[in-house]
Write a structure and sequence with these properties.
The complex is a heterotrimer of chains A (316), B (172) and C (734). In chain A, the strands form three sheets. Chain A has a five-stranded antiparallel sheet with strand order 4-5-8-6-7. The N and C termini of chain A lie far apart (51 Å). Chain A has twelve helices and eleven strands. With 316 residues, chain A is α+β, with helices and mostly antiparallel strands. Chain B folds into two domains: 78 residues, Roll (Ubiquitin-like (UB roll)), CATH 3.10.20; 80 residues, [2Fe-2S]-binding domain (DNA polymerase, domain 1, Orthogonal Bundle). Chain B contains six helices and five strands. In chain B, helix 3 crosses helix 6. Chain C is α+β, with helices and mostly antiparallel strands. In chain C, the strands form eight sheets. A seven-stranded mixed sheet of chain C has the order 4-6-2-13-10-11-12, with helices on both faces. In chain C, helix 9 packs across helix 10, helix 9 packs parallel to helix 17 and helix 12 runs parallel beside helix 13. The chains are: A alpha+beta (316), B alpha+beta (172), C alpha+beta (734).
Chain lengths: 316, 172, 734
């Protein structure tokens, strides 16, 4: 870990300005991913701005009947929030499927969205990785790829986004609210927030330098059965091989987002349309054009089967 | 600005003032600066839970947080829960049920289990909670899921769960 | 003392303390965080420095140059010692790959430098500033590919690579029913919770090392060899060890780097292996490819059994001895086993809990299940039918005591084995449920073991031995042994372990620790009893040590009084005659498992586990049970998800941390039941005990594999049995 200077942010604007003025500065919130990566020198900031004291830890109802979740709300608190449990159960379920109790007590809403991939080659600084070191090559292609992506992958990168929460956020049509260093506020739909790797896998979101996430808001609840099914090797404290988050209405219509298959939580309108026809149709639409490796092609079948189980559970 | 900071924490009830490198994790502050080595470094990357401590009553991995971010916080480590001649009920239950072997994950397991009982009491949901809208109840399944962030390679899990169940009963 | 004839009645048989469920005497220390592990030794008068290791980023080749200027100039740095600057070092007798020194790279993450700084943070940061130029060489990293070039290795601990009895080929060809299948087990990681760590301090030419070692004397000897110094100049201590499982049997780089760094700086230096470095820097259990052929007559009697195994290691290494149990476990007149060793340039393969038997039984006990099914026999019945009371390769050599049949029968009854259905026939909701069984088998090894026992004038007995407690319960069972021998309560015994100033013991490994080390304490206590008797003028033949007193005839003296002002000492080493040659000494078990396999996802979750063990006298049922449940837990990991993923292009284990090498967590493990058969084995030692810590692992993974087959009808022969190997053959989901 490189040496860094440290400051506590006094305001969102000051924090954003501070990061914008220093290309080697980073915000730190829960720190559970950033410090992990700093110890390995995958992240090498020279200045950290602690944003924990900015009062962004509230969950409030919005005037349109939705919910506004402060960027610094801890995963534990978000999962336990009464409204989330009642109206956005998918989010609660996804959160508690992730990490461990200790990590969820620190991890924040915005930090969870900004989690970086768990590709083992990204994590080993001896190995080429386009995401870590642009232009160095992708070691996962032709290497160990069982955990990695099958959708939206490129020749440069087959990494996945590891978050469970983001899958639920995607199904819930969340909107990410930000402040830019110049004070401009913008709202980014979750579907637009994460990028596909293309030939710039090191650029993972649409955030600009210094742009600061203040909140994530959810539209009014849509009802339906909320089911999050995470599939993994061990029973807990593991990243998903695949995960399926779905909201299914009594008439069989609904929406589905999938984790563990792409560089972002994966959802397609065309697949939602197919949902009433069943898992085969919906997952066929969702994973059309998949580009799996020999080691992770099982994910195609696994998504379909898991979605099948989710649909049965919703009907049951 | 400098690469070091002063931080003042209350550790096991006692105020401690430290001058730390900004990079110093809370874990290393406890172990290397305060010589409270009951808190263990198993992986230093949030992957094992051996470093679990309570900060303001909440369990966290002390390896993935900076000491400098805990100015003014109250930290409870295994040393603060109980002493060899004055065991915390959870520590006593671990001894009784042989909920450890090598002992290296044990302080983390115990700190975590003390917090787990509080979390269930506070009605926080877990991955195995049946209904999100009903009161969470203590069960072996709930304990196993909530304790899964504490790895024990010796494999004392079956005994640890028995210890926690007993401690939960004694306390209730 | 030499143990040459079967044990007769001795003071241990009183079982006032030995055999009793006594809680760990170190329990209060461990549960309060007061037990001090290697990296934690702190003397406020010493000014510790921190060493941080750097590992090679290539798997094979040479280092052309290292630029340490930036590291040396970094804040707080006192010294940078590189593998080039230190020059060639010796290589420990028990190490395959060198740990440090010289320009040759033999495996990924081999230590190539240690940076010493005032703080941990400074040392870690500076280590990454070292620039290395390599001359990379191509290597062999794929066992499946290297299998063709594998050769017959030399003997392993006296056991030949190949054995053959009768006419295997003829009998196999002629068998009424036969099977021929190939199984694979992957490279596996010990992943103990405490990383390898050492603190080293020099006083002149004398070196003190606090470390985390299963075998004090092996480490001390190999550290002396590596550093080129006299072993007597090294004082090594390891009183608490945060798990080992074989990974801390042999000297590792942390101790070497700490010693060299301490020499370079004149300061006490602390070095711990960072977790992401640990997997490739240290040892692992090598992968195997195993071919098993079994032939039987229609009644189910095995007529031919053959087991071949291929594994790989660095040049100079040895095979994973996966065929060993097949030489002994089942009857059959015609038999063959063979091991072949390929040269691989992966990190060093070496012992991990139950080396040989653990992966061997993972394969053999699936094969037995398959064969039973082919024969239309219940797998328990098939095993019982082919039980043997003699070494099947040398029928003149009986087992000292063997009750595998008893384990299987009792287990079947307790587990509800009769409720087992046909494969794929039991469904509960979304779960397919299956039961599986496997035999457990692990040889009972004995090792010379010494101890010194001091009786103080306060009546307290203090035991000193360099034995280690890696979580096994050595502290407690040694206290029990001394208490029983000297007729005192456990709380009147102090136990001091893991210090090279104490007599050399068996150490912890190969499940030989408990039986061997307590036997050494027994021997020392016999000496102390003689000394007490002599001082009191008692006839040592009829002297009784009981309730803190020594009695002979109608005379009775408090033990404390017998000690005299300066106390008494007994010291001895237990040595072993040829009873392990004349008799096959082994431990036996039966593992029963119930699994649920998710119909949709193919995820396997273990629902119930039972182990029935026959392992001689159980010295402490609490700590022995913990050994077994711990091993069963590891067996769940090995069955379901543990696999070091090999990058066969670059030659390293890719998943080198605890997030990506998944070991079982709480949620994976149900309540585990263990039953010990009430037995003794007088051939094994005066304790009449045998090992149990590895038996618990032997067979359990195959029982899980067999349960998965019973649940789903899908037979997987390649471990770990992850869902991707199952879902393709599961029924369609609605």
């Amino acid at each position: 870990m490189r040496a860094f200077t440290f400051e506590r942010a006094s305001s969102v604007e000051a924090a954003a300005k501070s990061v914008a003025s220093n290309p080697d500065a980073r915000f730190i919130a829960g720190g559970t991913n950033l410090l992990d990566l700093m110890k390995l020198e995958i992240e090498t900031p020279t200045h950290l701005i602690d944003v924990n004291g900015l009062g962004l830890d509230k969950i409030e109802a919005t005037t349109d009947g939705g919910l506004r979740i402060g960027a610094l709300v801890r995963n534990t608190d978000l999962a336990a929030h009464e409204t989330v449990r009642r109206d956005y159960g998918l989010l609660s379920r996804a959160l508690v499927a992730g990490a461990s109790g200790q990590l969820r007590n620190k991890a924040t809403t915005s930090g969870n969205l900004l989690q970086r991939t768990r590709c083992p080659y990204f994590y080993d600084t001896n190995q080429p990785c386009n995401k870590r070191q642009p232009g160095s090559g992708c070691s996962a292609l032709g290497g160990i790829s069982r955990q990695l992506g099958v959708m939206g992958v490129s020749e440069a990168c087959i990494a996945t986004h590891p978050s469970d929460m983001a899958v639920a956020m995607r199904a819930l049509d969340a909107v990410v609210e930000t402040v830019k260093p110049d004070g401009t506020i913008r709202s980014v739909k979750i579907e637009d927030f994460h990028r596909l790797p293309g030939d710039t896998p090191h650029i993972e979101t649409v955030l600009e330098r210094g742009e600061f996430i203040t909140a994530v808001s959810l539209p009014p609840p849509v009802g339906g059965r909320h089911i999050y099914r995470k599939v993994r090797d061990r029973a807990s404290y593991a990243f998903a091989l695949v995960s399926v988050g779905a909201i299914i209405q009594s008439d069989g219509k609904g929406r589905v987002a999938v984790g563990g298959v792409a560089h972002k939580p994966w959802r397609l309108e065309a697949a939602d349309v197919e949902l009433p026809k069943g898992a085969k149709a919906a997952s066929g639409a969702l994973l059309a054009g998949s580009r799996p490796t020999e080691q992770n092609k099982f994910k195609i079948d696994l998504v379909e089967r898991t979605l099948g189980a989710v649909i049965s559970e919703a009907r049951g | 600005m400098t690469y070091a900071s002063t931080v003042s924490m209350k550790v096991n009830g006692e105020r401690r003032d430290l001058e730390v490198d900004n990079r110093t994790s809370l874990l290393d502050a406890l172990r290397e600066h305060l010589h409270l080595t009951g808190t263990k470094k198993g992986c230093d990357h949030g992957q094992c839970g051996a470093c679990t401590v309570l900060v303001n009553g909440v369990r966290i991995n002390s390896c993935l947080t900076l000491a400098v971010m805990h100015d003014g916080d109250e930290v409870t480590t295994i040393e603060g829960l109980g002493q060899p001649d004055n065991l915390h009920p959870m520590q006593a239950a671990f001894v009784k049920h042989d909920g450890f072997q090598c002992g290296y994950c044990t302080p983390g397991q115990i700190c975590s289990s003390v917090a787990v009982l509080e979390e269930i009491k506070a009605n926080l949901p877990s991955h195995v909670t049946v209904s999100l809208t009903e009161r969470t109840r203590i069960s072996e399944a709930e304990i196993r899921e909530r304790m899964s962030g504490n790895i024990c390679r010796c494999g004392a899990y079956s005994n640890i769960v028995e210890a926690i169940v007993e401690a939960a009963g004694t306390r209730a | 003392m030499k143990f040459e004839t079967p044990a007769k009645t001795n003071p241990i048989d009183n079982l006032k303390v030995v055999g009793q469920p006594i809680h760990r005497i170190d329990g209060e220390l461990k549960t309060t965080g007061r037990a001090m592990y290697a990296y934690e030794w702190h003397d406020p008068n010493l000014h510790y420095a921190y060493g941080y290791p750097l590992g090679s980023s290539i798997a094979k080749g040479r280092i052309k140059s290292m630029d340490v200027a930036a590291a040396e100039a970094a804040p707080g740095v006192m010294s940078v010692v590189t593998t080039l600057s230190v020059g060639e070092l010796g290589k420990g007798k028990l190490n395959t790959a060198k740990l440090f020194g010289g320009d040759e790279i033999q495996h990924y993450h081999q230590a190539i430098a240690v940076v010493v700084a005032e703080t941990f943070e400074q040392a870690r940061a500076a280590a990454s500033l070292i620039k290395v130029e390599y001359q990379e060489e191509s290597g062999t990293f794929d066992l499946a590919e290297a299998k063709m070039s594998a050769v017959k290795p030399k003997d392993t601990d006296g056991a030949p690579p190949d054995t053959a009895v009768g006419d295997f080929d003829g009998a196999f060809y002629a068998a009424a029913v036969s099977m021929d299948e190939t199984y694979t087990t992957p490279d596996q990681s010990h992943s103990m919770m405490e990383p390898h760590a050492s603190i080293a301090l020099w006083h002149g030419d004398e070196l003190t090392v606090w470390t985390s070692s299963q075998m004090i004397d092996w480490w001390r000897s190999d550290l002396a060899t590596t550093l080129g110094i006299d072993k007597e100049k090294i004082h090594m201590m390891s009183p608490f060890i945060g798990g080992g499982f074989g990974g801390k049997l042999f000297l590792r780089s942390d101790a070497v780097l700490a010693a060299i760094a301490a020499k370079a700086t004149g300061r006490p230096v602390k070095v711990a292996l960072p977790r992401p470095l640990l997997v490739n820097n240290t040892t692992h259990r090598p992968a195997t490819i195993q071919r098993i052929r079994i032939g039987a007559d229609k009644s189910g009697m095995i007529t031919a059994i053959g087991h071949e195994s291929w594994s790989g290691d660095l040049p100079g290494g040895g095979p994973e001895t996966a065929v060993m149990q097949t030489r002994l476990l089942y009857a059959g007149e015609n038999r063959m086993t063979a091991m072949r060793l390929a040269e691989l340039n992966l990190p060093e393969g070496n012992a991990m809990r139950a080396p040989g038997e653990a992966p061997g039984l993972m394969a053999l006990e699936i094969a037995i299940d398959e064969m039973a099914e082919k024969l239309g026999l219940d797998p328990i019945e098939f095993r019982i039918l082919n039980d043997t009371q003699v070494d099947p390769e040398k029928p003149e050599r009986p087992f000292s005591h063997r009750n595998l049949v008893g384990c299987l029968k009792l287990g079947a009854e307790r587990f509800g084995w009769n409720d087992r259905k046909k494969p794929g026939a039991r469904r509960e909701g979304n779960w397919l449920i299956g039961l599986g069984v496997a035999a457990g088998f692990r040889n009972n090894l004995v090792m010379p073991s010494g101890a010194r026992v001091r009786l103080g004038n306060d009546g307290v007995v203090n035991v000193e031995t360099d034995m280690t407690d890696i979580g096994t319960g050595s502290y407690t069972i040694i206290a029990q042994t001394a208490a029983e021998m000297m007729g005192v309560a456990v709380d009147k015994v102090g136990v001091h372990l893991g210090d090279s100033r104490f007599p050399i013991s068996a150490g912890s490994g190969g499940q030989f620790g408990a039986n061997s080390a307590t036997s050494g304490v027994y021997a020392a206590c016999v000496k102390l009893r003689e000394a007490v008797a002599m001082r009191l003028g008692f006839n040592s033949d009829d002297v009784v040590f009981e309730n803190g007193e020594v009695r002979s005839g109608n005379r009775s003296v408090p033990l404390a009084a017998a000690a005299g002002a300066e106390g008494l000492v007994g010291e001895d080493t237990m040595e072993w005659g040829d009873l392990t040659d004349t008799h096959q000494q082994s431990t036996f078990g039966a593992h029963f498992v119930e699994v649920g396999v998710d119909l949709a996802t193919g995820e396997t979750r273990v629902r119930r586990m039972l182990a029935v063990c026959a392992a001689g006298r159980i010295i402490n049922p609490i700590t022995a049970r913990s050994q077994v449940i711990g091993a069963m837990t590891m067996g769940v990991g090995l069955a379901l998800f543990e696999e070091l993923a090999v990058d066969t292009r670059r030659g390293f284990f890719v998943n080198h941390d605890l997030a990506s090498y998944e070991v079982p967590v709480h949620a994976d493990i149900p309540y585990q039941e263990v039953i010990f058969l009430d037995e003794t084995d007088p051939m094994s030692s005066p304790m009449k005990a045998k090992g149990v810590g590895e038996l618990g692992l032997c067979g359990v993974s195959a029982a899980i594999a067999n349960a998965i087959y019973n649940a789903t009808g899908v037979r997987v022969r390649d471990y770990p049995i992850t869902l991707d190997k199952v879902i393709g053959d599961l029924p369609e989901v609605a």
